[in-house]
């Protein structure tokens, strides 16, 4: 088990397989012009597999595949197959916008995917189109139903924004009451050079929980396992599902942070809020350097993993805590 300089252990990698996405959620893709990483700089699946295998030797047990939109990348299912074959025992999860899942859920099940996080900020179709730029609300609802039908564990991610979807907390609570899903409200984070974040959008977790409590009887669930995510989860009395909050802004969870991020062009980021990156691609592509060199950098990076909330307090970039957009970091 590898420890960082603040005594935390790393057991979880978030790997972005692409920076491309078929949606343009206004809180995430703030890059005005379409500006994607050049194909030649995107890691091949073989290179990604090498990174994952190296991470496993550092006792990483959980891998989340994210993006951009992971299902936009060609042969993504084949990559899942490679991971299943080459990394048995690894807990592989996916975070997706759900819009491209149509017809793929049986294959996911077959490939051993048991858990999936699907983003859905609103239960209103017109609002969905307004927030994401595409009219795909039906597809996401269908994807959630398909995943539940095939027995996958589903978490819903909803970025909570005052003036945008704060009037839907009761509706989402009902959604979680009537389906076996965790609906997690995420506080809007000021990520990306020209982030659209404004304090007027801020909806702190305590206000969300107060609004949920007004319509349901909820009880906090204690965290148990090292790989429990950053969400604080609440059971709903007589509900099939649960409600959660990811309070990255108002009540940070940096002291239990157990994760590293790798972008699709092979840059290791030790904190969502820090622009400091460690370039793994040149090592992967060097004919001279092997896994030992990769591991050396990964260990060194981990030692210097910061406490993100301190960067948030400083907010050196004005509105934003870091310059890279969320869709190219992976969330
Ligand atoms: N600040 C911060 N936000 C995070 C971190 N990990 C995840 N998030 C945010 O939480 C939201 C949901 O992330 P997911 O991709 O669903 O991953 P997760 O919450 O770790 O998932 P689980 O392991 O299923 O709980 C996204 O907006 C992420 O950016 C983190 O370490 N720090
Ligand atoms: C960057 S997306 C990538 C995966 C996939 N495209 C999706 O939407 O689930 C991962 C998560 O980051 C969240 N996210 C994006 N921008 C955010 C922001 N500024 N603040 C909080 N969460 C954000 C999204 O809602 C999503 O749940
Ligand atoms: S990466 Fe995810 S959150 Fe960002 S624009 Fe695409 S679908 Fe929306
Ligand atoms: S802000 Fe950085 S240190 Fe804090 S929980 Fe997120 S990734 Fe970890």
From TrEMBL:
<dbReference type="GO" id="GO:0051539">
    <property type="term" value="F:4 iron, 4 sulfur cluster binding"/>
</dbReference>
<keyword id="KW-0004">4Fe-4S</keyword>
<keyword id="KW-0547">Nucleotide-binding</keyword>
<feature type="binding site">
    <location>
        <position position="68"/>
    </location>
    <ligand>
        <name>S-adenosyl-L-methionine</name>
    </ligand>
</feature>
<feature type="binding site">
    <location>
        <position position="95"/>
    </location>
    <ligand>
        <name>GTP</name>
    </ligand>
</feature>
<feature type="binding site">
    <location>
        <position position="64"/>
    </location>
    <ligand>
        <name>GTP</name>
    </ligand>
</feature>
<keyword id="KW-0501">Molybdenum cofactor biosynthesis</keyword>
<keyword id="KW-0949">S-adenosyl-L-methionine</keyword>
<dbReference type="Pfam" id="PF04055">
    <property type="entry name" value="Radical_SAM"/>
</dbReference>
<comment type="function">
    <text>Catalyzes the cyclization of GTP to (8S)-3',8-cyclo-7,8-dihydroguanosine 5'-triphosphate.</text>
</comment>
<feature type="binding site">
    <location>
        <position position="28"/>
    </location>
    <ligand>
        <name>[4Fe-4S] cluster 1</name>
    </ligand>
</feature>
<feature type="binding site">
    <location>
        <position position="254"/>
    </location>
    <ligand>
        <name>[4Fe-4S] cluster 2</name>
    </ligand>
</feature>
<feature type="binding site">
    <location>
        <position position="271"/>
    </location>
    <ligand>
        <name>[4Fe-4S] cluster 2</name>
    </ligand>
</feature>
<feature type="binding site">
    <location>
        <position position="25"/>
    </location>
    <ligand>
        <name>[4Fe-4S] cluster 1</name>
    </ligand>
</feature>
<feature type="binding site">
    <location>
        <position position="21"/>
    </location>
    <ligand>
        <name>[4Fe-4S] cluster 1</name>
    </ligand>
</feature>
<dbReference type="InterPro" id="IPR010505">
    <property type="entry name" value="MoaA_twitch"/>
</dbReference>
<dbReference type="GO" id="GO:0005525">
    <property type="term" value="F:GTP binding"/>
</dbReference>
<dbReference type="GO" id="GO:1904047">
    <property type="term" value="F:S-adenosyl-L-methionine binding"/>
</dbReference>
<dbReference type="InterPro" id="IPR007197">
    <property type="entry name" value="rSAM"/>
</dbReference>
<dbReference type="InterPro" id="IPR058240">
    <property type="entry name" value="rSAM_sf"/>
</dbReference>
<comment type="subunit">
    <text>Monomer and homodimer.</text>
</comment>
<dbReference type="Pfam" id="PF06463">
    <property type="entry name" value="Mob_synth_C"/>
</dbReference>
<dbReference type="InterPro" id="IPR013483">
    <property type="entry name" value="MoaA"/>
</dbReference>
<dbReference type="InterPro" id="IPR040064">
    <property type="entry name" value="MoaA-like"/>
</dbReference>
<dbReference type="GO" id="GO:0046872">
    <property type="term" value="F:metal ion binding"/>
</dbReference>
<comment type="pathway">
    <text>Cofactor biosynthesis; molybdopterin biosynthesis.</text>
</comment>
<feature type="binding site">
    <location>
        <position position="155"/>
    </location>
    <ligand>
        <name>GTP</name>
    </ligand>
</feature>
<feature type="binding site">
    <location>
        <position position="119"/>
    </location>
    <ligand>
        <name>S-adenosyl-L-methionine</name>
    </ligand>
</feature>
<feature type="binding site">
    <location>
        <begin position="259"/>
        <end position="261"/>
    </location>
    <ligand>
        <name>GTP</name>
    </ligand>
</feature>
<dbReference type="InterPro" id="IPR013785">
    <property type="entry name" value="Aldolase_TIM"/>
</dbReference>
<keyword id="KW-0411">Iron-sulfur</keyword>
<dbReference type="GO" id="GO:0061799">
    <property type="term" value="F:cyclic pyranopterin monophosphate synthase activity"/>
</dbReference>
<feature type="binding site">
    <location>
        <position position="14"/>
    </location>
    <ligand>
        <name>GTP</name>
    </ligand>
</feature>
<feature type="binding site">
    <location>
        <position position="27"/>
    </location>
    <ligand>
        <name>S-adenosyl-L-methionine</name>
    </ligand>
</feature>
<feature type="binding site">
    <location>
        <position position="257"/>
    </location>
    <ligand>
        <name>[4Fe-4S] cluster 2</name>
    </ligand>
</feature>
<comment type="similarity">
    <text>Belongs to the radical SAM superfamily. MoaA family.</text>
</comment>
<keyword id="KW-0408">Iron</keyword>
<dbReference type="GO" id="GO:0006777">
    <property type="term" value="P:Mo-molybdopterin cofactor biosynthetic process"/>
</dbReference>
<feature type="binding site">
    <location>
        <position position="189"/>
    </location>
    <ligand>
        <name>S-adenosyl-L-methionine</name>
    </ligand>
</feature>
<keyword id="KW-0456">Lyase</keyword>
<keyword id="KW-0342">GTP-binding</keyword>
<feature type="domain" description="Radical SAM core">
    <location>
        <begin position="5"/>
        <end position="231"/>
    </location>
</feature>
């Amino acid at each position: 088990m590898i420890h960082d300089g603040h005594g935390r252990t790393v057991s979880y990698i978030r790997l972005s397989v692409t920076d491309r996405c078929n949606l343009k959620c206004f809180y995430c893709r703030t890059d005005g012009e379409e500006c994607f990483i050049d194909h030649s700089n995107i890691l091949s699946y073989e290179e990604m597999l090498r990174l994952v295998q190296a991470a496993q030797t550092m006792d990483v047990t959980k891998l989340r595949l994210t993006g951009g939109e992971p299902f936009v990348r060609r042969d993504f299912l084949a990559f899942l197959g490679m991971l299943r074959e080459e990394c048995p025992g690894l807990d592989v999860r996916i975070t997706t916008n759900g819009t491209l899942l149509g017809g793929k859920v049986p294959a996911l099940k077959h490939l051993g995917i048991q858990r999936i996080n699907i983003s859905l900020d609103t239960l209103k179709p017109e609002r969905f189109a307004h927030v994401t730029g595409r009219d795909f609300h039906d597809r996401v609802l269908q994807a959630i139903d398909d995943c539940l039908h095939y027995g996958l564990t589903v978490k819903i991610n909803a970025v909570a924004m005052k003036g945008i979807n704060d009037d839907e907390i009761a509706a989402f609570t009902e959604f979680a009451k009537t389906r076996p899903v965790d609906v997690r409200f995420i506080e809007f984070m000021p990520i990306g050079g020209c982030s659209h974040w404004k304090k007027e959008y801020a909806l702190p977790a305590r206000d969300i929980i107060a609004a949920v409590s007004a319509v349901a009887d909820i009880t906090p669930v204690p965290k148990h396992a090292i790989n429990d995510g950053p969400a604080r989860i609440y059971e709903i009395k007589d509900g099939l599902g649960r409600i959660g909050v990811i309070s990255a802004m108002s009540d940070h969870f940096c002291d239990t942070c157990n994760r590293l991020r790798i972008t699709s062009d092979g840059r290791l980021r030790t904190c969502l809020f820090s622009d400091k990156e460690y370039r793994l691609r040149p090592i992967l592509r060097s004919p001279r350097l092997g896994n030992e060199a990769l591991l050396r950098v990964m260990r060194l990076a981990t030692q210097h993993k910061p406490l993100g909330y301190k960067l948030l307090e400083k907010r050196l970039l004005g509105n934003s805590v870091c310059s890279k957009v969320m869709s190219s970091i992976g969330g």
